[in-house]
Design a protein that fits this description.
By secondary structure, this protein is α/β, with parallel strands linked by helices. Helices cover 33% and strands 17% of the residues. It is built from 13 helices and 13 strands. It has helices at 15-28, 42-46, 60-67, 89-100, 112-127, 154-172, 192-195, 220-231, 273-284, 297-300, 307-325, 352-355, 376-382, and strands at 2-7, 35-38, 50-52, 103-110, 133-138, 179-185, 210-212, 236-242, 288-293, 331-339, 344-351, 394-395, 398-399. It has a seven-stranded mixed β-sheet, with helices on both faces. Strand 12 and strand 13 form a beta hairpin.
């Protein structure tokens, strides 16, 4: 039996570690023959664009480089499959292409929308007499996948966010004049990444002074009041804001600064809340102010990846292969946290349908009553996920990446 591994959705620093973990575990099994990689997610299987991964991950040095390579080495996609009961033609193409290469297991590494693909395709297979196992492997920097304690990719993104907040804090305090710095973090409906900026406080920092998440309604008036109150205590005020903060009416706070365009899953492209709030502070308070949008650096800064994130991504990729060999299908692999200190978890399977097209929100009980900060419970949850470093492999002083080309 051959297998195929594909990557989907937004890339992360750890998605290639899950690819590597699945690849290494598959290599050990006498029940598995060829290990294929599909280019650009499900599109690669539809278009029959596969590669033999053993030709690209030849030895240990390639594997170690893969672990340190950001983004999706096989490429990605954001393709929403139709309901197979309405149109099964694309599903037949996928199944036929897998059968032609004797592929009996498919592993799909992705987030909420990717689990939609896993759920739909496994349902089609079950109802149409095909013998193909389909396993979802979680990933997302947003940490909003349901049914799992955390998602691979989040720990490294969180480490980047809190490190960058620390560096910005140092930079902002060099002048004697009052200032406000607004840092915009990713997070459409769930504020996990912005909340993770609190981790710098474990090292004695007081920043960020304010944190705003989509889980709590946002108001311009409250924001300005909060900033002015903090300016009485600190010369340089640092605020971290999720890109998806919304008003009481459920509208994105920076809607006027956004394009309104959506992706294939109907998600609005977000950015601009930092710039919006910068102009608001400049207009209403009149102090020195700047906004910083962290943008894609949150998901591709592998030079400061969390070792815990990379190792757990490897582990869940390997566990997915074992689950497939045990006969599991239509499931997503999931972490279950057993303790914070010492940090312990186990890996289980959950129905992919439970994670598909749903979101795990930041707990309201971990947000302070006034809605502009997070509690120590959040810090205890985050800290284990950002531990350890994976030193980059350098050439000419620059980190190297592994390339898998068609």
């Amino acid at each position: 039996m051959n297998i195929v591994i594909a990557q989907s959705g937004g890339p992360t620093c750890a998605i290639n570690a899950s690819l590597g973990g699945a690849f290494r575990e598959a290599e050990k099994s006498r029940h598995i023959g060829k290990i294929f990689g599909a280019f650009n997610g499900i599109e690669g299987i539809i278009d029959n664009k596969l590669c033999d991964l053993e030709e690209h991950i030849g030895g240990w040095s390639d594997y170690e480089l893969l672990l340190r390579t950001p983004s999706a080495a096989l490429g990605s996609c954001r393709r929403k499959l139709p309901d197979w009961k309405d149109d099964s033609s694309i599903y037949k193409t996928i199944a036929d292409n897998l059968r032609k290469k004797d592929i009996g297991m498919m592993f799909y590494i992705g987030g909420n929308d990717s689990m939609d693909t896993v759920a739909k395709f496994s349902d089609y297979i079950a109802k149409n007499g095909r013998d193909i196992k389909i396993i979802g492997i979680p990933k997302t920097i947003d940490n909003d996948l349901c049914c799992t304690d955390h998602s691979p990719g989040f720990g490294s993104a969180a480490k980047y966010v809190c490190t960058t907040v620390g560096e910005i804090t140092s930079d902002s305090t060099v002048y004697s004049i009052p200032s406000v710095t607004i840092i915009e973090a990713m997070g459409r409906h769930a504020g996990w990444l912005a909340a993770a900026s609190c981790c710098i406080r474990a090292n004695g920092e007081s920043t960020p002074h304010l944190i705003y998440l989509p889980e709590v309604p946002f108001s311009n008036e409250k924001f300005l009041s909060d900033v002015m109150a903090k300016m009485k205590e600190h010369r340089a005020v640092i605020a971290v804001v999720s890109e998806g903060v919304k008003t009481d009416e459920g509208r994105f706070a920076a809607e006027a600064y956004q394009s309104g365009q959506v992706d294939t899953f109907g998600h609005t492209y977000l950015s601009g809340v930092g710039k919006y709030l910068e102009r608001l502070v400049a207009s209403e308070i009149g102090c020195k102010v700047r906004s910083i949008e962290l943008n894609v650096m949150q998901r591709c800064s592998s030079h400061i990846a969390s070792l815990e994130d990379i190792r757990s991504a490897e582990a869940i990729g390997a566990a997915a292969v074992r689950a497939g060999l045990d006969g599991k299908t239509g499931v997503m692999m999931a972490f279950v946290r057993e303790s914070n200190s010492p940090y312990k978890y186990r890996i289980e399977t959950v129905p992919a349908q439970q994670a598909a097209n749903s979101e795990k929100f930041f707990p309201r009980e971990w947000i302070t009553p006034d809605g502009n900060d997070v509690t120590d419970d959040a810090l205890e949850y985050f800290l284990p996920l950002i531990q350890g470093e994976l030193s980059p492999i350098l050439r000419n002083g620059i980190p190297m990446n592994l390339t898998i080309s068609e």
